[in-house]
Every structure is written in structure tokens, then in C-alpha cells.
């Protein structure tokens, strides 16, 4: 490729003569569970000669690009989709002949890295490039829909072969301004919108609060990811989004027929969810590359990613059920494991693992995740112990596609839960691991606590699964629904499923009659009725039971594409900084035994803020020391750490089960005595006793 000097490289996280004359405008349009992102990059050449500007930027790995255009001076150019080699040749030919052109390319190694070449840009000339893509928003553990606009693109570790050259830029030195606005519309009312950045007050655009708008607050400095969390009321109710076919397209085609997106986000009864699995093989794969020594966020420089991972492993190991199997792997340029193969969970194996976790450091070099995954998959599965893989990484790898291909090949033998740590983690890798492994993805950024999100995923892994899912379409005669998305095989609590279907039949094209979509959630089927208007620009009405919905329109080009298809630079450290005083919660958790009980000793008394004599003196005479200690720990958790319940809930359930198994006398008196000693008023029923 012919390059015109000087060459500029700009974008979210790349650097080479960063141009200061850039601005980015981002418009977010959220319609139920789908978001359309319109991003416009404005740049002016301040050099005294023509340049070729190269911008490297992150894009969600599962996004569908549906529009790309540029205004260079008075020239408007709309991109065409072509084979990569042909597109490169035509771009080079245009530059060689003195024409203006641009080229957008996806990385061959990772689908969330794009490079944009703009040339040749004359001196003093301005360029405005608009990129539009659509993405399904992920559902967080608390039901929020998450959108993230990365401020930085981390350098990607590439084990071998060519890759996109990316060098990190400190977020504080990002040279361009950002304008960001969002508009949210849904069949459900929008209850709130939260962000990691300061926002202007949320503005509702109608009386029933189903449409809302929000902007970044004035003076925003683009020094961190812009993360939006969108909350809907009645989030667990099924809903549908319908889009009319294009008048110019042939009936019977994807673009010519109406399509529907049905959202299923069930909430199961507590009586069902309380029946947790007591078996399984739990494999924890932890990134120990040098980048894991970076701070977890920009506000707490003492808490590093690897230290947060250590604390999380402590909670995980304490929360595992007796009778399961487990192992822990660490990976970097090489990998290691605590046990040669997964071992049965017991007091001995747990303590052996914890001793090694306590000294775990980010000291294994690069980020090569492929080899440890190959080793894990080569291990035979244990009979009646379903394999659950938990992957912790900052996502800085370059061979994403190869990794995901491996997970896909082994999807039938395990589930994969993935965790992206820090800003700039590869969404293609983190989301791809969970998607191919039939698990759940979580991102830990800003002030997020890794422990809460990981423990939520452990609940998913332990909860019962709903199988034999069927979707029944109740349509008028002559109308049919062709499901376009992969079949739903399982549904978990807190996991959203989307069903896309193409609706065929003349009744739907111009007839004002209605049709129904039957959503069978055995044993009580519910019916979603859609009353069709003209399938034009008018808003249709939807009914679910006695509830009225508004019709929403999504991007048809995006649907077609979807179905087909960190803050600062971190260097390796040679010294470990002094650690702050350990969290009392983690101190208490570290004292729990694998069976779920606590021992009555000085260490427990210290965490409770009491002396050994005070604790011993208050113990009812009929109760054993272990039962008394365990009830004290449960009272302390419920009375002092309710704000962190997501982190300790599973180990508390295990502790309560242990107490019940002891058939201890005078449990009510024991609870009263513990409340009196610690100064709380926790009821016995709240403890699960």
C-alpha cells in the first residue's frame, strides 16, 4: 500500500502523531434489547501536504455494521461491501491516481478491532466519517441492559503471525472530544439509566415513560469507558418488536417480509431456584499475564486485577458444594495448574488450593489462552459431574477467532462463564467465550466489584436449568413464521433469549387484520397478540394479556447481519506494593471450612469485634462450639454485610445447611444470644434455618 507522509494514526487507544483536530459524535438509539450506534468522526488535516490518516478502534465483536460513509470536502462517499483483497486493491489504486478514498477493515485475528484508512486528504481539508452498527445489548446480573463505548483499545498479545499493530494511549492523553447522546424506547417503561460517567438528568419523552433521552454531562473528559446501564420496569415480561418489510423488496425474501423479535427473560419461582446443584466439575482459568498487575480501576491504584482475582477465588472456593470437583489454572506465555487433574472438593484440597492462590501473581508473561484451553478440553469429563469453566482475563489477546473456534468444538462437553477485567477488555473474546460455551459473560470495569459479578455467575452454574423449550406461533390461516435464530435449548434464571422470525403470508402485507404469537411457557401458555395496522410508518399496537404495547422498528440490515453471522499503559512491576488492611468480609470467609461451618477461635472473635472470652461466655450451654460459631458468622453477615449479599449468599446457604444437618438443640435461643452479643436483630428465618 502506498503511504503518504506524514501518516497519522488515531482512535480509541492507538497512537502515532496523534492528531489533535479530531472530535467524535456518538448517537445511541436503543429499542428494547437492540441498540443502533451512529458514530461520526470529524478530522481536519493541519499538515502542509496530503496525508493518509489511519484510525484503529474497537467495535463490539457481535456488532453488525450496516452503514459506512464519508464526507471529504464536498465529496460524499458511501461504502460498498467487497472481498478484503479486492477492497484493498481498489483503495490503493485510488490513492495512486490521486483520488480520495477510504477503507474499513476488520482484523483477521479479532472481530472487535477495525482499522479505517482515509486518503489522500489534502492540506487543510476536513473529513467526516460516519459508521453505523447494531448490537444486541447484554443483560447484567441485576437485569440491566449494558452498553459500553470503549475509551481505549488495549494492545493485543499475538502469540504468532501478523496482527493489527496497536500501541496503548493513556486515557488522560486522548486528544479528541466526545459528544454522546442516547435515546431509549421500549414496550416497557424505562425506570432509570445509570452510567460510569456523569449524565444530565434523564428526560422522559412521553407520559408512560416508554421513551427517554439522556446525554453526557457538560465537560466530560473521555478518560474512561462510557458505560450505560438501562433498567426497564416489568423486565421479565415477554415482549416483541415487529418490523415491516421494505416496499422495494420482493415478498418472500428477508428484506421484503415482516420480521419479529421476541424477547424472553423469565423469572422462575424461588422454590425452584433454591434447589441448587450439589455436583459439577468447576475449572477456574485465571489470566496471570503482566497486564493483570494493572490497577482494576483509575480510582484505586492499590487494588490490582490479580489481587481482585485472588479475592474472588477465595469466595468461589468457599462457596463450592461438597461432593463436586475443581481445579485452578493460571496462564500467560505458559500455563500451570494447582492439581494435575480436577480433584474432589474437601477440606484438604480446598486448603491446598487456597495456599497457592494466596501467592498467585501476574508473573507468567504474555497472554496465550489457547494452550491451557486445549489442555483442559483434553482432560476426560468426570461422570455425573457437568464441567463448568470460568475464565478470568483482561482480554488482551490477538488470536480471538482461533480461541472461539476451539470453545465451539467443545461446547457439548461444558459451559463457559467469562469475565472481562478492566477497561478495554476484548468484547469479542469475552462475549464469544460465553456465547460459544452456552454460559454467561460479565465485564468488570470502573468501580465494579469482581466478586459480586463472579458469584452471580456461580449461581447460574449451580441453578437448575429449564429444558425442552418450545415456541408455538398461533397465526391466521395462510400465515407462517420461519424462525431465523438458532433454537433455544436451555433457559437459565437471569438469562435473556431472543427469537427472530420471518413472517410470510399475504394477510400480513397490507391487511389490517391481526395475528397472535403464542408463547408457551408450560404449564400456563401466554399469548402475545399483535394488531397490525398497515405496516407502514404508522405505529401499530401490541397487546399482552390486558397490557398495551407500542410497536418498535429495528434495523433490517442489522437483523440480517446479526443472524449471519485500559485506561493507562501498564508495565510489568518488579515489586509488590504494600497491601491495605484486608476486608473484614474476606477475613471471615477465609475462616470458613469446606463443610460450611466455622470454628470458635480467636480469629473469628477478632473479625466479630469481640474478645474470645466474650464469645465463649455468651454461648448457650447445650450448643456445640462449631454450631455457635457458625450462627455467629451468619448473624454478622446478615447484620453487617447485607450490602455485599451477592458475594456471600452461596457460602451462607452452605453454612445454614450444615447447621440443619447437625440437628442442634436450641437453635432459636442460639440466634437470640448471637443477636444480643453482636447487637443485631436478625430473625432465624432470614438465616435459612
From TrEMBL:
Domain of life: Eukaryota
SMART domains: VIT (SM00609), VWA (SM00327)
Region annotation Disordered: where it falls in the sequence: 1-22
Domain VIT: 5-135
SUPFAM superfamilies: vWA-like
Domain VWFA per the UniProt entry, residue ranges: 281-469
Name of this chain's protein: VIT domain-containing protein
Organism of origin: Oryzias latipes
Amino acid at each position: 500500500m502506498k503511504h503518504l507522509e506524514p501518516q497519522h494514526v488515531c482512535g480509541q487507544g492507538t497512537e502515532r502523531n496523534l492528531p489533535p483536530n479530531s472530535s467524535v459524535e456518538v448517537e445511541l438509539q436503543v429499542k428494547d434489547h437492540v441498540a443502533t450506534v451512529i458514530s461520526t468522526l470529524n478530522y481536519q488535516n493541519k499538515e502542509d501536504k496530503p496525508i493518509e490518516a489511519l484510525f484503529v478502534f474497537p467495535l463490539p465483536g457481535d456488532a453488525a455494521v450496516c452503514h459506512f460513509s464519508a464526507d471529504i470536502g464536498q465529496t460524499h462517499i458511501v461504502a460498498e461491501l467487497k472481498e478484503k483483497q479486492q477492497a484493498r486493491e481498489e483503495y490503493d489504486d485510488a490513492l495512486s491516481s490521486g483520488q480520495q478514498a477510504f477503507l474499513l477493515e476488520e482484523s483477521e485475528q479479532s472481530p472487535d478491532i477495525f482499522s479505517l484508512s482515509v486518503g489522500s486528504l489534502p492540506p487543510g481539508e476536513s473529513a467526516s466519517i460516519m459508521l453505523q452498527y447494531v448490537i444486541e445489548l447484554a443483560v447484567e446480573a441485576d437485569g440491566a441492559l449494558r452498553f459500553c463505548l470503549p475509551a481505549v483499545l488495549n494492545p493485543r498479545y499475538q502469540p504468532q503471525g501478523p496482527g493489527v499493530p496497536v500501541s496503548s494511549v493513556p486515557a488522560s492523553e486522548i486528544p479528541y472530544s466526545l459528544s454522546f447522546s442516547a435515546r431509549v424506547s421500549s414496550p416497557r417503561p424505562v425506570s432509570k439509566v445509570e452510567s460510569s460517567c456523569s449524565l444530565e438528568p434523564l428526560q422522559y419523552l412521553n407520559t408512560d415513560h416508554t421513551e427517554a433521552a439522556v446525554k453526557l454531562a457538560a465537560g466530560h473528559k473521555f478518560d474512561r469507558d462510557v458505560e450505560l446501564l438501562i433498567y426497564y420496569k416489568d423486565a421479565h415480561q415477554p415482549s416483541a418488536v415487529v418490523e415491516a418489510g421494505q416496499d422495494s423488496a420482493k415478498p418472500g425474501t428477508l428484506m421484503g417480509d415482516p420480521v419479529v423479535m421476541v424477547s424472553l427473560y423469565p423469572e422462575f419461582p424461588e422454590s425452584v431456584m433454591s434447589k441448587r446443584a450439589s455436583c459439577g466439575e468447576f475449572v477456574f482459568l485465571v489470566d496471570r499475564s503482566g497486564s493483570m498487575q494493572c490497577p482494576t480501576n483509575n480510582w484505586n491504584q492499590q487494588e490490582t486485577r490479580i489481587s481482585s482475582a485472588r479475592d474472588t477465588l477465595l469466595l468461589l472456593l468457599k462457596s463450592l458444594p461438597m461432593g463436586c470437583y475443581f481445579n485452578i489454572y493460571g496462564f500467560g506465555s505458559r500455563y500451570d495448574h494447582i492439581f494435575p487433574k480436577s480433584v474432589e472438593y474437601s477440606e484438604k484440597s480446598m486448603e491446598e488450593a487456597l495456599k497457592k492462590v494466596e501467592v498467585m501473581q501476574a508473573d507468567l508473561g504474555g497472554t496465550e489462552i489457547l494452550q491451557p484451553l486445549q489442555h483442559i478440553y483434553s482432560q476426560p469429563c468426570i461422570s455425573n459431574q457437568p464441567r463448568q469453566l470460568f475464565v478470568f482475563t483482561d482480554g488482551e489477546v490477538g488470536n480471538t477467532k482461533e480461541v472461539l473456534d476451539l470453545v465451539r468444538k467443545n461446547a457439548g462437553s461444558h459451559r463457559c462463564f467469562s469475565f472481562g477485567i478492566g477497561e478495554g477488555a476484548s468484547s469479542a473474546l469475552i462475549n464469544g467465550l460465553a456465547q460459544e460455551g452456552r454460559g454467561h459473560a460479565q465485564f468488570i470495569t470502573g468501580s465494579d466489584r469482581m466478586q459480586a459479578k463472579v458469584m452471580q455467575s456461580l449461581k447460574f452454574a449451580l441453578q437448575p436449568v429449564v429444558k425442552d423449550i418450545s415456541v408455538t406461533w398461533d397465526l391466521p390461516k395462510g400465515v407462517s413464521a420461519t424462525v431465523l435464530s438458532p433454537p433455544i435449548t436451555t433457559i437459565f434464571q437471569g438469562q435473556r433469549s431472543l427469537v427472530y422470525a420471518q413472517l410470510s403470508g399475504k394477510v400480513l402485507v397490507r391487511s389490517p387484520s391481526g395475528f397472535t404469537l403464542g408463547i408457551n411457557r408450560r404449564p400456563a401458555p401466554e399469548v402475545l397478540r399483535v394488531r397490525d395496522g398497515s405496516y407502514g410508518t404508522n405505529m401499530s399496537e401490541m397487546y399482552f394479556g390486558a397490557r398495551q404495547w407500542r410497536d418498535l422498528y429495528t434495523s433490517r440490515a442489522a437483523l440480517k447481519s446479526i443472524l449471519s453471522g485500559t485506561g493507562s499503559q501498564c508495565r510489568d512491576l518488579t515489586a509488590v506494593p504494600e497491601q491495605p488492611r484486608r476486608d473484614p468480609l474476606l477475613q471471615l470467609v477465609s475462616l470458613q471450612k469446606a463443610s460450611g461451618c466455622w470454628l470458635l477461635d480467636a480469629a473469628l472473635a477478632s473479625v466479630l469485634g469481640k474478645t474470645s472470652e466474650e464469645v465463649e461466655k455468651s454461648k448457650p450451654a447445650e450448643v456445640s462450639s462449631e454450631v455457635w460459631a457458625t450462627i455467629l458468622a451468619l448473624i454478622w453477615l446478615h447484620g453487617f454485610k447485607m450490602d455485599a449479599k451477592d458475594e456471600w449468599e452461596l457460602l451462607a446457604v452452605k453454612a445454614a445447611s450444615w447447621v440443619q444437618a447437625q440437628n442442634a438443640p436450641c437453635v432459636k435461643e442460639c440466634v437470640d444470644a448471637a443477636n444480643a452479643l453482636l447487637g443485631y436483630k436478625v430473625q432465624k428465618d432470614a438465616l435459612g434455618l
